[in-house]
């Protein structure tokens, strides 16, 4: 039996690049969303959503040039529905973080993809992930009698975003035969068609203030264009389980970004809730059956939160 040759430093570094890309994507998304919250005073959550989605649509269209491809009527309607879901998800998420901390909103939103993952499995092991996630979510929900100090409206919007994220995954799984970059560029354009009129109605001329646009440009780049591009690079180079586990870090990273950038301090019970949901999400991803496949468009990465 021959010894397996050791990987060269160059090969080891190359193997780590996809992992670094996913981690970088999560960090960029959370940092970008934290800075987006600074714009709420100027244009509101609706205006921030409109600017982020619209600018991201322009960026992604410039990168992927979706007009170069052709779609059947059936595919076009699916992409449009996917984009509408994406727009509503973004709007609900930004409405949520008006009144609840970023990390907690992400944790609640993560129950959407977690529910999709667990619904497609019938194994006893998945009961463990449910047993972890349910108490974590229970600690965050305002169930009355002082159980949670979180704003009920904010939690409601986060739960709505979770439902949209679940729908986003299901709808995205039907687009796997399409070019990933072009599909998400078209979907983001459809999302802009939903969110821009709402943003204009809420913020009006404030949306074109040069200072607001400059910050919004950075937010769109950090929270949409950069994360999606990094994940497009990582997805073909990582096992789905590894990708899912790494993505499950997002609620924790969001909490740290909220603390560092926004000064959002969490109680011990809230950190415990985030930890439970992160462990449940990571566990569900790590133990997912290899036969269960999804497509790049179904991954929640850059288009979410």
TrEMBL record:
Subcellular location: Cell membrane
Pfam families: EamA
All residue ranges annotated as the EamA domain in the record: 154-282
Gene Ontology cellular-component annotations: plasma membrane
Sorted UniProt keywords: Cell membrane, Membrane, Transmembrane, Transmembrane helix
Protein name as it appears in the record: EamA family transporter
Membrane topology: Multi-pass membrane protein
Lyase listed as a keyword: no
Keyword Magnesium attributed: no
PANTHER family reported in the protein's UniProt record: EAMA DOMAIN-CONTAINING PROTEIN (PTHR42920:SF5), OS03G0707200 PROTEIN-RELATED (PTHR42920)
Lineage of source species: Bacteria, Pseudomonadati, Pseudomonadota, Alphaproteobacteria, Hyphomicrobiales
InterPro entries: Diverse_Substrate_Transporter, EamA_dom
């Amino acid at each position: 039996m021959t010894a397996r040759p050791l990987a060269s430093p160059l090969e080891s570094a190359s193997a780590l690049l996809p992992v670094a890309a996913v981690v970088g994507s999560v960090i960029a998304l959370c940092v970008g969303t934290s800075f987006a919250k600074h714009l709420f005073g100027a244009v509101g959550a609706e205006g921030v959503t409109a600017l982020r989605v619209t600018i991201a649509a322009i960026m992604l269209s410039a990168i992927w040039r979706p007009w170069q491809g052709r779609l059947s009527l059936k595919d076009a309607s699916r992409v449009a529905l996917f984009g509408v879901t994406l727009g509503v998800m973004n709007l609900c998420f930004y409405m949520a973080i008006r009144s609840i901390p970023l990390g907690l909103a992400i944790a609640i939103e993560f129950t959407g993809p977690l529910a999709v993952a667990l619904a497609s499995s019938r194994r006893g092991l998945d009961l463990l992930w449910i047993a972890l996630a349910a108490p974590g979510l229970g600690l965050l929900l305002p169930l009355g009698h002082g159980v949670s100090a979180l704003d009920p409206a904010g939690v409601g919007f986060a739960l709505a975003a979770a439902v949209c994220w679940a729908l986003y995954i299901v709808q995205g799984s039907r687009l796997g035969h399409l070019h990933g970059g072009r599909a998400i560029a078209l979907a983001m354009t459809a999302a802009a068609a939903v969110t821009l009129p709402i943003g204009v109605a809420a913020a009006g001329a404030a949306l074109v203030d040069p200072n607001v646009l400059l910050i919004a440009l950075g937010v769109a780049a950090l929270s949409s264009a950069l994360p999606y591009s990094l994940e497009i690079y990582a997805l073909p180079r990582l096992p789905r389980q590894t990708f899912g586990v790494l993505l499950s870090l997002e609620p924790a990273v969001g909490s740290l970004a909220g603390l560092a950038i926004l000064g959002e301090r969490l109680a011990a019970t809230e950190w415990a809730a985030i930890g439970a949901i992160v462990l449940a999400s990571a566990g569900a991803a790590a133990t997912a059956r290899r036969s269960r496949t999804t497509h790049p468009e179904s991954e929640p990465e850059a288009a979410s939160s």
